[in-house]
Amino acid sequence: MDENIRQIIFNVIGGALVALLGWIYTKLKRKYYKYSFKRIFGKNSEDNFIVTYGKMRLLPPYDDKGQLRKWPYYHKTPGHAFNVSSIVSHTATKSINYLSETFGSVFNNAPKLCSDEEIEEKLDISFCAVGGLNNLKTTDLLQSKENVFYEFDATGPELAIASKKDKTKKFSIDGAYDFAFIIKIIPKNFPNRVWIAVAGLGESGTTGAAWFLAKNWKKMPKNKSFGMIIKVRVGQDESAEIVETVTDS
Q1: In which element (H, E) is residue 111 found?
Q2: Is the pTM of this model over 0.70?
């Protein structure tokens, strides 16, 4: 066989092998990402996962003193005021976008999106609730027996996040920084489901924690419940960093 022809054949075979190995590597890498992702967001996260936001309602535009309300919307949960200026807050939309982009990059499809009121009575589901006391599913998670991590504390002059294991440990906005929690639990009654809540004391806490979850899920504890405190410089989601992580084991 002519040497030039032999060289051409070798080059073609070599190129085909490189392409095949590249294709196999890409497939295996994607499969591993899916497997790893499901260890955080649950086995059914590919086709049956919900991202839920708090549905807001409109108050009369003026208060009892005739003053224009600064925050004209409220939530179904009684007794709380929220820093929200629209029916679906900018905080929720930013957070949802971070999470949807990550789901799309792993599975090529986005999670289901619905308000907390649409799934208020449902517990046998996997979800990520965005927002704190203005989200009924966050409340479900916080009140569950499996949440041994964090809770909101309203006993002081300002709302804080408190550790449930160490009552003396509290986190509150200090001006330059906001704080948030990311809590994941596996409910005892529904062991095949995953409940996650992402909530800050202020808007930056929530959006920063959602960004952190979306970008750093690979570093989080796998196949177990955990609680995480996130510190965020106000107005800079990408400054989010871990303060502490607590697991259930």
Answers
A1: none
A2: yes
